[in-house]
Amino acid sequence: MVKETIRVYARVKPLGRRQQAGIYSVDNDEKSLSSLEIIVPRDLADGFVNNKQESYKFKFQRIFDQEAKQDVVFDNIAKPVAECVLAGYNGTIFAYGQTGSGKTFTITGGAERYSDRGIIPRTLSYIFDQLQKDGSKVYTTHVSYLEIYNECGYDLLDPRHEASRLKDLPKVTIMEDPDQNIHLKNLSLQQATNEEEALNLLFLGDTNRMIAETPMNQASSRSHCIFTIHISSKEPGSATIRRSKLHLVDLAGSERVAKTGVGGHILTEAKYINLSLHHLEQVIIALAEKNRSHIPYRNSMMTSVLRDSLGGNCMTTMIATLSIDRRNIDESISTCRFAQRVALIKNEAVLNEEIDPTLMIIKLKKEIQELKDELVLVTGKERTSELSQEELLKLDELIETFLEDNDPDSTLDVGADMRKIKYCFIHLKQLMNDSKMPDKKLLLQHNSEEKDSNKEVGEELKKLKELLQQRDNEINILVNMLKKEKKRAQEGLFQLNAASAGSTVLEQSLCVNLEESQSPASSSSLKEAKDFSSSVHRPPFLSRQTG
Ligand code: ADP
Ligand code: MG
Predict the structure, then answer these.
(1) Which of 13, 65, 66, 107 to mutate to test the pocket of ligand 1 (most atoms within 8 A of CB)?
(2) Which CATH number does the domain 2-42+51-357 belong to among 3.40.50.300, 2.70.50.60, 3.40.850.10, 3.40.190.10?
């Protein structure tokens, strides 16, 4: 993954013969960013000294002044991007500037001299050159050429050659898949196997572009043209495919339609700009701002198509084309301002690799066949995926002998055949499960019996406890009765004041028995209480035989 800001360059168009130069200076610092200073002279004609700013400074990756030739521009701007695209990253180069500032000259080139070839033909030449040199991969190259005018897309590579107007060209529409990837319906992808074929396609597109343009609608200044080179590469025998694309974009003129104060006197910001460029500006502003979650890509077709190039998976470069004559100084300044904002945007280019499923299947099938062949070679036997009935019966026999063999060192040898080994394991598992069954049943039965007997013992215990409690109650009652009897006997003794040997004996025996029966209920006291109860009068509620 490569994360970097959009690289922004400036190119100053040579002045025309009758043009008056604006005041500007270029400071190309080799080590850091270059700077461009534009001076706006004070308007003395106004008759008073105003405080308007005079000097405007802008930073660029590099500035190409009037004398810079096409090859230098290509080497510095396009070649590094083309190299990334060859390595599997997406790339975009777009030219932004007012009409007549040299966008088309920079992107496509001038027709007069061969040396005026622009970025597209030079890039095609460079890419095919590199592809030819690299014999380690298989490359496929396609090109497409899209023109967007008034929010409508047109396929400039329509091979019918019948188009005389833009609207006769096939219309291209945008489709978005669930993953929010943009697909262009009706845009033809023409294969180009060499530089010549690709250049012919570029020529076809440019011809369609020119034919469709009429002086009345000036389509070229209001439309955007996107020439795209699609490269896919694959190492022989590998299922991994790298796909990358390079967009070379010639944008519509950035001039503001309604201007006040032409001629560099009063600088006013735009009143109106080509609508889709306005949307591009909104996207750039949103991307440059931190913490913006919504980026309005969908507002125009151009921003939708360039979505990945702006704030996405792409190495993007912008060329600000400047027409530096005095009349256009304000437009040049607004182009530079736009460029400064673009320079803040960070993109993350990732390697576009994918696995081709059909290639993967072919590869795996081949590998399986090779392994099968190897197996035949080693075992000397051809194998099918299933075991035959005969083989299965043989295995059953082997397992049986193995299980019956009491020798602890006995082995089950089925040979180095996974199918047979698996079968044996399954068979043994089944046997084990079956043999476990009776044991399980017994265990279950035993458990239920144990539960039943436990229940019975519990009930018995409960009954005995109840009985014991009942006995205790009876003893308590008897003890109370005895106490009362004793008291009464003592009272009688005092009253009579006479003692007889028989009554003393009775009293003594009563005392002895009372003391004994007052101790806590135990098996011995229970016995004595019973003996005693038989000798005294029994109350009605104790009449039941206690056993
Ligand atoms: P744009 O596409 O921005 O409207 P063009 O590329 O058509 O502008 O340029 C307008 C004119 O200026 C064309 O005739 C073109 O050949 C010429 N021109 C632009 N840039 C240069 C340059 N760097 N060197 C020579 N001529 C140029
Ligand atoms: Mg142009």
Answers:
(1) 13
(2) 3.40.850.10
